[in-house]
């Protein structure tokens, strides 16, 4: 009888270990090289995850331009503290004019089966905020509309005054969340590695009274490649926290409650979507 009990106990422990291992596996997802961009700057490398599931036309054009070497050697010509780092070909150049214009993909309609991992109700800019496939987004159930939001580190396509005038110039918010640009610009990815190198870009805007920054000092993009085109021994492979996993939802609950003893005065149980950093880890 004792032997049978011991065997059952061992079996139960093994089952729990297996369940734990399975749960650990679902907490992470590996970025697909075909949806990942490697940007090489003079001072380091930046990895960008693209979002073809939300902004397919922008991702397709951006990926094609990268493969054609469109961005290689171009510069970040508009880098403003607390705003954006914007780069692309010289305005009016042959390279600039050769790119087709894109119809805006600022939002999309949802159906009754649509779901996401909710973070907050009654956000300042949306009825709800949350994550889907690792991307921060706003959602208005009343409109059946959702969109990717302008958190620091997202990548979006610049445009003129016309909604459908984006081509190849892109920007990355480098300070505050630019939520007032949600829905009127197309966000199509986000920086997942090397954001410190974006923050270190040469500022092109100076305060009044300072001499202008010489355009020859603007930071160049040495090279941009799709990760799938990088030799395998040089690829940067990253795992990102799975926002559809139960462990992520539990982390949101703890984050909202601020149970750490540091908070001797509890703030309101509010979570800003752009202040929920996703965990990441290098595979190689």
Question: Can you put this structure into words, describing what you see?
Answer:
With 284 residues, the protein is an alpha+beta fold. The chain has a single domain, classed as Cyclophilin. The chain has five helices and 16 strands. The protein has helices at residues 2-26, 56-67, 94-97, 195-199, 246-257; strands spanning 28-30, 36-41, 44-50, 75-79, 84-88, 108-109, 117-121, 128-132, 135-140, 145-148, 154-157, 170-173, 186-193, 223-226, 238-241, 280-282. The strands form three sheets. It has an eight-stranded antiparallel β-sheet with strand order 4-5-12-11-13-3-2-14. A hairpin with a 2-residue loop joins strand 2 (36-41) and strand 3. The N and C termini lie far apart (50 Å).
Largest sheet: 8 strands, antiparallel
Under the CATH scheme, the architecture is Beta Barrel
Strand line-up across the major sheet: 4-5-12-11-13-3-2-14
Q: Could you tell me the radius of gyration in angstroms?
A: 22 Å
Secondary structure tally, helices = 5
Structural class: alpha+beta
What percent of residues are in strands? 25-35%
- Helix share of residues? 10-25%
Mind sketching the topology for me?
Layout: H1 2-26, E1 28-30, E2 36-41, E3 44-50, H2 56-67, E4 75-79, E5 84-88, H3 94-97, E6 108-109, E7 117-121, E8 128-132, E9 135-140, E10 145-148, E11 154-157, E12 170-173, E13 186-193, H4 195-199, E14 223-226, E15 238-241, H5 246-257, E16 280-282
Antiparallel strand pairs: 1-15, 2-3, 2-14, 3-13, 4-5, 5-12, 6-10, 7-8, 8-9, 9-10, 11-12, 11-13, 15-16
């Amino acid at each position: 009888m004792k032997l049978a009990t011991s065997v059952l106990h061992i079996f139960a422990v093994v089952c729990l270990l297996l369940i734990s291992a399975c749960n650990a596996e679902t907490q992470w997802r590996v970025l697909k090289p075909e949806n990942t961009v490697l940007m090489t700057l003079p001072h380091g490398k930046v990895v960008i995850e693209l979002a073809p599931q939300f902004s397919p036309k922008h991702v397709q054009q951006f990926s094609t331009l990268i493969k054609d070497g469109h961005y290689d050697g171009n510069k970040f010509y508009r880098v403003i503290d607390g705003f954006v780092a914007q780069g692309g070909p010289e305005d009016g150049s042959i390279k600039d004019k050769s790119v087709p214009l894109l119809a805006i993909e600022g939002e999309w309609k949802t159906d009754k089966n649509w779901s996401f991992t909710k973070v907050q109700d009654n956000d300042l800019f949306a009825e709800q905020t949350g994550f889907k496939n690792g991307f921060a987004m706003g959602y208005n159930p009343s409109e059946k509309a959702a969109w990717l939001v302008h958190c620091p580190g997202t990548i979006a396509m610049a445009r003129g005054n016309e909604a459908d005038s984006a081509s190849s110039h892109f920007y990355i918010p480098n300070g505050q969340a630019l939520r007032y640009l949600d829905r009127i610009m197309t966000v199509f990815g986000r920086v997942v590695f090397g954001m410190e190198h974006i923050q270190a870009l040469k500022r092109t805007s100076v305060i009044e009274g300072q001499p202008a920054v010489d355009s020859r000092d603007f930071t160049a993009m040495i090279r941009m490649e799709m990760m799938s085109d990088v030799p395998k021994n040089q690829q940067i492979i990253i795992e990102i926290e799975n926002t559809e996993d139960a462990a992520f939802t539990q982390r949101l609950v703890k984050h909202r409650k601020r149970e750490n003893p540091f908070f001797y005065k509890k703030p309101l149980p509010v979570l800003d979507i752009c202040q929920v950093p996703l965990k990441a880890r290098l595979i190689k």
